[in-house]
Amino acid sequence: MARRLVAAGVRMATLTYGGWDMHANITQGMRGQMPAFDQALSALIRDLDRTGLLKETMVMVSSEFGRSPKINNNAGRDHWPKVFSVLLAGGGIKGGEIYGSSNATASEPDQDAVEPPDLAYTMYHCLGIKPEKKLLTPGNRPAAIVYGGKLLTRLIA
């Protein structure tokens, strides 16, 4: 469906797939959801690449939080804002890159930490939107679309 929307000219398609907030029984939850998600994401990226749409379409997989580095008492993982992962493909992003790392316990950023404004800045840049752009609020006050942030040049194709 996402690929058909993009092929039809839709500028942004947002998809959700189940709940990933696995505070309990994470192993069972991941075994239940990951195979279908992996198959669908792989098929989407392959299809966009096959049809030539991947060059102009950015695919992003993220969540609202990272997950705690330790399993909790309910065999799940809790919210952890210090470290999280994002997958980006196409739309001006260089393929095959791993950017940034966490420490050995996955509890803190270690190298090349990316802040949310850096991610937003880079995505806007790749989508042809000036990250420095300001929009006017209903009260005619300028508001930045990204507060701060820097271009993650190693990720640019």
Explain what you see.
The chain has helices spanning 2-7, 26-50, 116-126, and strands spanning 58-61, 66-67, 79-80, 87-90, 101-102, 109-111, 134-136, 142-144. It contains three helices and eight strands. The protein is an alpha+beta fold. The model has no long low-confidence stretch (mean pLDDT 92). The strands form four sheets. Strands 1-4 form a two-stranded antiparallel ribbon. A two-stranded antiparallel sheet has the order 2-3.
Task: Describe the structure concisely for a colleague.
This protein is an alpha+beta fold and 157 residues long. The chain is built from three helices and eight strands, in the order H-H-E-E-E-E-E-E-H-E-E.
Approximate shape: globular
Radius of gyration: 18 Å
- Characterize the biggest β-sheet: 2 strands, antiparallel
Strand content: 5-15%
Order of helices and strands: HHEEEEEEHEE
Q: How many β-strand stretches? A: 8
CA distance, first residue to last residue: 26 Å
Name the strands of the widest sheet in spatial order.
1-4
Q: Average pLDDT value?
A: 92
Fraction of residues in helix:
25-40%
Q: Briefly note the structural class of the backbone.
A: alpha+beta
Show unreliable segments.
Answer: none
Q: Kindly report the oligomeric state of this protein.
A: single chain
Q: How many alpha or pi helices? A: 3
Keywords:
157 residues, alpha+beta, two-stranded antiparallel ribbon, 15% strand
Give the topology, please.
Layout (H helix, E strand, L loop, with lengths): L1 H6 L18 H25 L7 E4 L4 E2 L11 E2 L6 E4 L10 E2 L6 E3 L4 H11 L7 E3 L5 E3 L13
